[in-house]
Amino acid sequence: MLTVINYSNALEREVAETPFWTEAQRKQAIALCAPVYLEISVSLWQQLCQAVAALDQLLNSESHRQEALGREELSLNDAPGGHGAFICYDFHWRKNEGLRLIEVNSNAGGLLLNDWLRQHTDRWRGLPSSSVVPVVEQMFKEHWQQTGARQPLRRIVIVDHQPEQQILYPEFLLYAERLRERGFIVEICDIGDLYQYSYATEHADCLIYNRLTDFYLKNVPDWPKLHWVPSPATFAIYADKRNLLDLQQQQSVAPWVLACRGVAEQPMEWWWAQRNDWFFKPSEGYAAKAAYRGARISRKVLQWICEQNNYLAQEYFPATEVDSPGWGRYKVDLRVFSYAGQPLLLCARLYQGQLTNMRTSGGGFAPVYVRNG
Questions:
Q1: Closest by Cα among 124, 122, 117 to 31
Q2: Averaged pLDDT, 279-294
Q3: CA dist 340 to 82, 107, 114, 118, 137, Å?
Q4: Are strands 87-94 and 320-324 parallel, antiparallel or unpaired?
Q5: 78 phi and psi, to 5 degrees?
Q6: 206 has pLDDT over 60
Q7: In terms of Cα–Cα distance, which of 210, 208, 172, 158 is closest to 32?
Q8: Residue 248: inside a domain, yes or no?
Q9: Is 355 within 8 Å of 297 (Cβ atoms)?
């Protein structure tokens, strides 16, 4: 169901023609993109759509929203009705076992970078193309309306910790360029400078596009004074990995959800004996940070994990592997960006090693097409 096609020379030409990136940023963008595209079957695409629709419906249900917000003492007032931000679902697929959800993200990077990549790949292949940018604009405007703001949305501030040092900084610039083209004032701002600029009092027309990995904004004590998308409530509802404990009990999503347990449920020796069957990750983790495959973990690290109060163990389900022509063999996961339960864009991440990463030579994001026939 997965076919890999190489087009590395065309990718380098397209990056070279992007005017708002410096030469260093063009090189950074190339490193984020695999020089291939993938094709999947119609059947697999249908499975992905079914899984995303079922998961979104469950995660956005009133009962789940109340339970998820209650864990962090947030309220429904912190999560106005509607979806508020695009959501990202990461899956592994294996030919004989099928499709399994690995995690859900509320502010995952890559949407516009993959949109840009897809458009250029379409052009290289001679295919008609479209962009998700109008939906991104709609998402920001809908969230703005949900906040009850009286002024029209004019200003969007992209916020991260030291944004120019982030691996996806070229995508921040891409967001700024595309949103300015649609009439917005756009700035890219370090979180440390956000309140220095007094956005809350001087720019009442300002929306914060949150790319921080401090998902609950625990280090931003005055965060309620500003309008954030995604907000801590969005993370709680969709992306806190403790949600996986609840999802595994729901019949409507059972075909796609792996077994998951709180590490605190069992003593360290039990986990040591069972470690090969599990993958350990923190509830607020991201990008495989502080995540460990049980088969390769040491007793010392496992002991440390058991001493924490925020780790989950997820059933280990290995990613499928593909041969990338001229580059080697890579693991693949499938990422679906969605908004309001509707898929926006499908891409893959190619990587080597035990954890998903964006630093493997020849790896990175890759467009995924549905194969006809």
A1: 117
A2: 82
A3: 8, 15, 19, 22, 14
A4: unpaired
A5: -85, -5
A6: yes
A7: 172
A8: no
A9: no
One-letter amino acid for residue 48 of the chain: L
Helix (H) or strand (E) holding 56: helix 42-59
Q: What count of Cα atoms within 13 Å lies in the side-chain half-sphere of residue 248?
A: 16
Domain membership flag for residue 253: no
Two tokens, residue 276: 């090969």
Three-state SS for 345? Answer: strand
Q: How far apart are the C-alpha atoms of 190 and 174, rounded to whole Å? A: 17
- Beta strand pairing status for 320-324 and 260-262? unpaired
* Tally of structural domains, the chain: 2
What range does the domain containing 131 cover?
3-242+319-370
pTM attached to this predicted model: 0.92
> Tokens 């690995």, residue?
102
Q: For residue 97, give the 3-state DSSP assignment.
A: coil
At position 6, the amino acid (one-letter code) is N
- Model confidence at 297: pLDDT above 80: yes
Residues 6+ apart with CB under 8 A from 192: 161
How does pLDDT run across 135-182, given as a tens digit for each residue? 999 999 988 888 877 888 999 999 999 999 999 999 999 999 999 999
